[in-house]
Write a structure and sequence with these properties.
Elements: E1 4-11, E2 29-36, E3 41-46, H1 50-59, E4 62-65, H2 68-76, H3 85-89, E5 91-93, H4 94-102, H5 108-116, H6 124-132, H7 136-160, E6 162-166, E7 172-176
Parallel strand pairs: 1-4, 4-5
Antiparallel strand pairs: 1-2, 2-3, 6-7
């Protein structure tokens, strides 16, 4: 059976707390969620289960996410994830594909709102605050909602060959994607 996962994680720290964006590997894993596309089931992970999470990622046939290669995979490096060419080749990184097409980054929230009128439930800053307050269930729930929004964006792009975003002038624009 094929294993295709949609993946997202949340961190324990903000970039400015660890010296900036050059130190993503210092952010620490607060929570992560994998959505198994074939069974439509969510798997939730916290830092103490990082080894099981990495095992699932490494053994997946396909990984789908938003900024996986630059961000999520880098956060997991201190926990033992090695970012290899085979891992990168089985990864569909929605943000990377959009960046390569447009030449600039667009947020998941912007893309979801413009493509199918959905919004994220919070943001990464709030997730870090919840983590620091010991509200891990809120972090996991937020992460799971992000995974659901990411899957919806991927499915929209796969079905239509494009997704939409709102540009700086408030205009809805399409960007072509190839997520077959």
């Amino acid at each position: 059976m094929t294993k295709t996962y949609v993946f997202d994680l949340e961190t324990k720290h903000l970039a400015q707390e660890v010296g900036g964006w050059d130190y993503i590997d210092r952010l620490g894993l607060a929570a992560a969620v994998l959505l198994d596309i074939e069974t439509d089931t969510y798997q939730r992970y916290t830092e103490q289960h990082a080894v099981e999470l990495i095992d699932a990622i490494v053994h997946a046939d396909r990984m789908i996410g938003f900024n996986l290669i630059r961000f999520d995979y880098t956060v997991l490096k201190p926990y033992g994830l090695t970012v290899t060419p085979p891992l990168v080749s089985k990864t569909t990184d929605l943000l990377l594909d959009i960046y390569q097409e447009l030449g600039f980054r667009v947020s998941l929230d912007n893309l979801a709102a413009a493509s199918f009128q959905a919004r994220k439930s919070a943001d990464g800053l709030q997730a870090v605050a919840w983590y620091k307050e010991g509200k891990i269930d809120e972090v996991l729930e937020y992460c799971q909602i992000d995974v659901a929004v990411t899957r919806q964006l991927w499915q929209f792009g796969k079905a239509h060959g494009h997704v939409f975003f709102e540009d700086r002038n408030g205009r809805r624009r399409a960007v072509n994607v190839n997520w077959s």
